[in-house]
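FORM 12-B: Structure-to-Sequence Request
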């Protein structure tokens, strides 16, 4: 590992904006947040994957993975981040390092040729180059190659030095943020600015969620200058330092960007959520108040309240038909980060009961918000082993489970309704319209008649007397006796 990368990781671990690390002693803080990774089990959990997740939604640039083909295969498009225009980000670019490249030390030359070819074919505004474990271990200097390519080709080449072995996915998110701070943000000027320009940080436009929020800001006359990085363009991110306010959606991922932009450019930030009616309204109010404080017209606050009143009334009217199906239903929420409290808030708004919520990848501030919302910390769990999760569901402690795709089979085995709440989903849940979508999906899952059918005993498990001597039970019982 190069000294520059070691220094960058140490800087990330000492991030003052991270409450979790700030609460540690000096010795513990030096260890950072990384957890030992199991060799061969890095897909979905290594630093490279975290960096790719954070940056790939910049849609008009080339994302070039320097390493073996499998790294790009594992890291490509695992978040359903949608684009309203350019589709270059949907193409997988890799140097496809082979054994001879490693033995002969030709990785850097191969990387430069790949950058040159990508620029010639696609003419992107920039090329993001991701280091992976193999070139990092053999000493390929991607920063030097990127500098040389930028000078020769006239296109910014951004080194993203986050090889998988340095730590977890969350560390990779932050290293991606450092790459933006070091090489992108502040390198270009916007064509124009307004007193109501804002950035949203840590939002990836999963299944088009940004598109449910952007129209609300537009109706208020608030200009979304850059979303870092959902449905983003390179120029927007490069000129993001001219915005007036930053909204932080997922602090566990990109808190370093928010804090350092405040430090360097004087842009205040706040953390908010677009999950749930109340949280969406709070985000709009806070944004308007900060903009007015920074010079926007004072009447923006009145217009914001008028919009919130109209949108809340419309949303609750659309939710009303689903209340009977959802009120009092118990939910096991197994997610993490900002969703550990924002989804809790959304579900409690519609009268559902939270059995427990996972706090994986959640900051101390996230946990404090859960306590504030639920008035207790008894429902918070770090992680639940599959066997224990299955027992909870099988014993009827929850009516539905909300989680990511990797735990869906535990719920299905327990014959319990399940709804995808993580990045793999295909339905957007952000904003007022997103809350209506979430309620409709919950009702659809809970009311699905398939659950009544799969919970019924199989005909051969029902004694003939209990079946009332039915024509089906008797032959089945007789066949079982002969066997």
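FORM 12-B RESPONSE
SEQUENCE OUT:
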């Amino acid at each position: 590992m190069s000294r520059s990368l070691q220094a960058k990781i140490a800087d990330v671990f000492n991030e003052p904006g991270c409450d979790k690390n700030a609460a540690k002693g000096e010795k513990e803080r030096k260890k950072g947040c990384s957890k030992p990774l199991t060799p061969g089990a890095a897909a979905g959990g290594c630093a490279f994957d975290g960096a790719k997740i954070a940056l790939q939604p910049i849609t008009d640039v080339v994302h070039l993975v320097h390493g073996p083909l499998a790294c790009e295969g594992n890291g490509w498009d695992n978040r359903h981040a949608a684009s309203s225009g350019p589709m270059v980000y949907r193409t997988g670019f890799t140097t496809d390092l082979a054994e001879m490249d490693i033995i002969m030390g030709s990785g850097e030359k191969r990387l430069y040729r790949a950058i040159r070819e990508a620029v010639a074919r696609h003419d992107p505004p920039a090329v993001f180059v991701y280091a992976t474990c193999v070139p990092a271990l053999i000493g390929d200097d991607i920063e030097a190659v990127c500098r040389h390519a930028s000078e020769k080709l006239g296109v910014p080449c951004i080194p993203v030095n986050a090889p998988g072995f340095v730590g977890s996915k969350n560390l990779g998110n932050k290293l991606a943020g450092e790459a933006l701070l070091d090489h992108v943000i502040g390198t270009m000027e916007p064509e124009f600015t307004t007193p109501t320009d804002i950035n949203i940080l840590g939002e990836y436009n999963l299944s088009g969620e940004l598109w449910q929020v952007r129209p609300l800001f537009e109706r208020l006359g608030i200009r979304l200058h850059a979303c870092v990085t959902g449905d983003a363009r390179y120029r927007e991110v490069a000129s993001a330092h001219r915005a007036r306010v930053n909204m932080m959606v997922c602090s566990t991922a990109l808190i370093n960007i928010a804090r350092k932009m405040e430090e360097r450019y004087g842009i205040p930030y706040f953390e908010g959520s677009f999950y749930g009616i109340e949280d969406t309204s709070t985000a709009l109010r806070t944004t308007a108040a900060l903009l007015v404080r920074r010079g926007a017209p004072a009447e923006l606050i009145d217009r914001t309240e008028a919009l919130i009143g109209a949108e809340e009334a419309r949303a609750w009217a659309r939710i009303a038909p689903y209340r009977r199906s959802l009120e009092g239903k118990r939910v096991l929420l197994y997610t993490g980060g900002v969703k550990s409290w924002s989804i809790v808030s959304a579900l409690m708004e519609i009268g559902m009961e939270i059995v427990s919520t996972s706090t994986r990848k959640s900051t101390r501030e996230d946990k404090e918000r859960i306590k504030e919302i639920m008035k207790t910390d008894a429902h918070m769990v770090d992680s639940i082993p599959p066997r224990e999760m299955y027992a909870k569901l099988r014993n009827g402690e929850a009516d539905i489970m909300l989680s990511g795709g990797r735990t869906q089979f535990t719920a299905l085995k327990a014959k319990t309704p399940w709804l995808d709440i993580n990045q793999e989903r295909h339905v957007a849940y952000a904003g007022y319209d997103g809350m209506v979508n979430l309620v409709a999906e919950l009702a659809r899952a809970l009311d699905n008649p398939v659950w009544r059918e799969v919970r019924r005993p199989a005909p051969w498990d029902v004694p003939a007397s209990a079946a009332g001597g039915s024509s089906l039970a008797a032959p089945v019982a007789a066949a079982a006796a002969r066997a």
